[in-house]
Amino acid sequence: MSLRGVGLRAFEQMSKEEGWDRERSFFIASRSFIAIPFWDRGERTGGFFMKKQTTYTIYSASGNPTAVIVGTIPSAKIRAQINVDIMQQSPTVEQCVFVNPAQKSCCMAGGEMSGNGFRIAGFIVMNAQRTNQLALTDFGSSQSFLCTKEKSLVSIDLQIPTLLKKTDNESIYDLGSIVHVVFLAKSKNDIKEKETALLEKYRSLSSNAIGIIGITRSQNNYRIFPKVFVKNINTLVDETSCGSGTVASFCFINQMSKKLSFIQPTGLPILAESVRENDTITRIRISGKIEKISNEISIGDL
Fold first, then answer.
1. CA 176, CA 228: separation in Å to the nearest integer?
2. For a Cys staple, 261 with which of 112, 269, 274, 286, CB 3.0–4.6 Å?
3. Based on the structure, what is the number of domains in the chain?
4. Are 191 and 221 part of one and the same domain?
């Protein structure tokens, strides 16, 4: 019997054993072997198999270190566990994105919409497809986004956020699977004093993620300071860059006829501009540099 056949029989046997959690298990067949990674209360269920470690590579989008895992993993529980493992192993990582270059699709670990995560995914898929433009699909929401690249400058067109609420102090924008609370502040210290209270005030909003975006302004220069809570994976991060937060900030500033630069906490910019069709604004485009900042890493190898 071939090694693949042995692996398949092992998987069938293991799936019949008491305590086997099929929802949290999956297998990957390759040309010469079957790999069966699984998470079952941290215990190995018996059987003969070859295990394939999960690997990831870290990219930067004007900051915002993002771990990229190549492959489609439908299970939200497995994506969440992989996210935990990676963030424990690589503490500088702020988020994880799963990318399938063949299907031109991606999904964030928590199912949220991420302008930077999707730009990184678009960069990887465009390189794999040897093109400078394509439609990238979020397999979590089935939405598609136009991505373009020119060398290391990568752009993505995102939907115009829905204004949910506007008060004298803040505005709330819904980008589909993330909601941003945006406010203007005098300084970074002023932002830090307000963001925790704002997060507690709005964390019950129905969305996969809540972002608190403080903006400071000096003449025509805008700086943003994002804090993002992703509910499904229970992460709260002071992000070093935020693409979707830049979109919400662009709408908040309300100078839609201009291309604006928003300086991220890293000191690097993300550009935002309106995309028009027949004089009607249809999308918001953000652009910035994408850089690969690590080689491939296996979980558990560091």
1. 15
2. 269
3. 3
4. yes
Q: In which domain, by residue range, is 199 found?
A: 159-286
**What is the spatial distance between Cα 232 and Cα 164, in angstroms, rounded to a whole number?**
22
Residue by residue, what is the 3-state secondary structure of the chain? CCHHHHHHHHHHHHHHCCCCCHHHECCEECCCCEECCECCCCCCCCCCCECCCCEEEEEEECCCCEEEEECCCCCHHHHHHHHHHHHHHCCCCCEEEEEECCCCEEEECCCCCCHHHHHHHHHHHHHHHCCCEEEEEECCCCCEEEEEEECCEEEEEEECCEEEEECCCCEEEECCCCEEEEEECCCHHHHHHHHHHHHHHHCCCCCCEEEEEEEEEECCEEEEEEEEEECCCCEEEECCCCHHHHHHHHHHHCCCCCCEEEECCCCCEEEEEEEEECCEEEEEEEEEEEEECCCCEECCCC
Q: Quote the tokens at residue 96.
A: 């994880």
Query: Is residue 143 within 8 Å of residue 176, measured between CB atoms?
Result: yes
For helices 115-129 and 243-253, angle between their N-to-C axes, nearest 10 degrees: 120
Same domain for 147 and 65:
yes
* Beta bridge mates, 100: 105
Query: Does residue 147 sit in the same domain as residue 164?
Result: no
| Residue pLDDT, tens place only, 205-255 | 989 999 999 999 988 789 999 999 999 999 999 999 999 999 999 999 998
Domain boundary among 11, 28, 52: 52
Phi (first) and psi of residue 75, to 5 degrees: -75, 120
